[in-house]
Amino acid sequence: KYSREEPNAFWHELAQELKIDWSTPYTQVMDTSRGIEWTRWFTGGQLNITH
């Protein structure tokens, strides 16, 4: 229920709980400006898979 009512907070907390090491931190969890079906996740964030 929480994930549907507060999706930004849910996914932000999940990313923190998983201790994802962002090489560049994200600036926004969800960008739904183009519609929910075209959601962009963790915008601005970058990961380094070799790190």
How would you describe the overall organization of this protein?
The protein has 51 residues and is α+β, with helices and mostly antiparallel strands. The protein has one domain (2-45). It is 29% helix and 25% strand. The protein contains two helices and four strands; from the N terminus they run ααββββ. The chain has helices at 2-5, 7-17; strands at 22-24, 28-31, 40-43, 46-47. The strands form two sheets. It has a two-stranded antiparallel sheet. Strands 2-3 form a two-stranded antiparallel sheet. It is flat and about 35 Å long.
How does the SSE layout of this entry go?
Blueprint: H1 2-5, H2 7-17, E1 22-24, E2 28-31, E3 40-43, E4 46-47
Antiparallel strand pairs: 1-4, 2-3
What is the gist of this entry?
The chain has helices at residues 2-5, 7-17; strands at residues 22-24, 28-31, 40-43, 46-47. It has 51 residues and is of the alpha+beta class.
How many domain units?
1
Q: Sum up the overall morphology in one term.
A: flat
Tally of alpha and pi helices:
2
Provide the β-strand percentage band: 25-35%
Helical proportion?
25-40%
Keywords:
51 residues; 2 helices; two-stranded antiparallel sheet; alpha+beta
